[in-house]
Amino acid sequence: MVIHPPDQPSLLEPGGDNAVAYAVGITADEWTLLIMRQALSGRPQRYGELRERLPISDAMLAARLRMLTGYGLLRAEEYTTAPRRYEYVVTQRGAGLWPVLIGIWAWERRWVPGQAEHLPLMRHAACGEIADPRLHCGTCGAPANLDDVCGRFGPSWSWRRSVPKVPTRRRGAASGSGDFAATLALIGNRWAVSLIGAIMLGTHRFGELRKLTGAPAPVVSQRLRTFTESGALAAGPDGGYFLTEQGRDFFGVIACCLRWGAQWFVSPEGPALTLIHRDDHEFAASLHCDQCDQALAGADIRELSPAAVGSR
To answer: Which residues are in the HTH hxlR-type domain (predicted)?
Structure first.
């Protein structure tokens, strides 16, 4: 793997995978999300600590840590030489993933049965209230949703260049449903984000989706079935597929992921996709506290267990 600099953008190969492919390929993996959640807790993570906290095999953990250090999200620092052992420190690039993780957390709590009881609450330190993050435009500060935003393809865009070459993976069935099962149903496959993105951009029919993305017909069929079963998509009377309110709300996660990818993975030809807010200015996904309306920062968010809050 090419080692990516942790605190400056990676310059990608001309004609190769673009920022969308890198953002999706890195984040659409449950083990990556779980490891980065631990890494963003505010202190370095040691291998043994991660192994104790996560239901992950040694081989899988070692592979994910190699990937995350190779992509510049974590930095390995030696803390003992006999035996040689390392702790993993989140980099500036890795720290930038917090809106994606918080966006997934908020979406799962809102829409997935049982997750409101399972996932932690988030307290916004600036106002002291329990926060439910809401999507805003970081350029103008206004609230935003899928209806307000359109996409403009850039010089490094093509559907082929936007699909990760390595299939994204999720936990096996033997490990249970997982912490982000509903999210991974939408993005945990190398074709999934392309298909859900095409639907968000206005393509709704099976044949059009297949032609546009280049995905094999069985994959399109399987993904549409998975999206529908998850509650994010509904079949229309004319044979098309349309986002439900649940599916539309997932746009916030996609927008945060795209912003992170565009910041840290740069194609020499130019950007792959630019989001435009209200046909007026570039859209920069930003999460705000629903209680005080301030923009959230990763350092200002505290995890609280639902049980602890309920006992107050």
So the answer is: 13-116, 177-269
Q: Residue 44 domain-assigned? A: no
Alpha carbon distance 83, 268 (integer Å): 43
| 0.85 surpassed by pTM | yes
The total domain count for the chain is 1
Which of 13, 50, 24 is CA-nearest to residue 197?
24
* Domain that includes residue 277, residue range: 10-30+92-301
2 CB burial (10 A radius; 0-12, 13-18, 19+)? exposed
pLDDT, tens digit (0-9, with 9 covering 90-100), for 262-299: 999 999 999 999 999 999 999 999 999 999 999 999 98
Q: Exposed/middle/buried for 202, CB within 10 Å: 0-12, 13-18, 19+?
A: exposed
Question: Which CATH number covers residue 255?
Answer: 1.10.10.10
Residue 43 resides in a domain:
no
Q: What's the pLDDT tens digit per position in 111-123?
A: 999 998 889 999 9
Alpha-carbon span 4 to 12, nearest angstrom: 10
- Best CA proximity match to 267, nearest among 152, 154, 100: 154
What pLDDT does residue 198 have?
96
Alpha-carbon radius of gyration of the chain: 19
Average of per-residue pLDDT across 226-237: 95
The DSSP string of 243-290 is: E-HHHHHTHHHHHHHHHHHHHHEE-TT--SEEEEETTTEE--EEEE-T
The answer as to whether 100 is a domain residue is yes
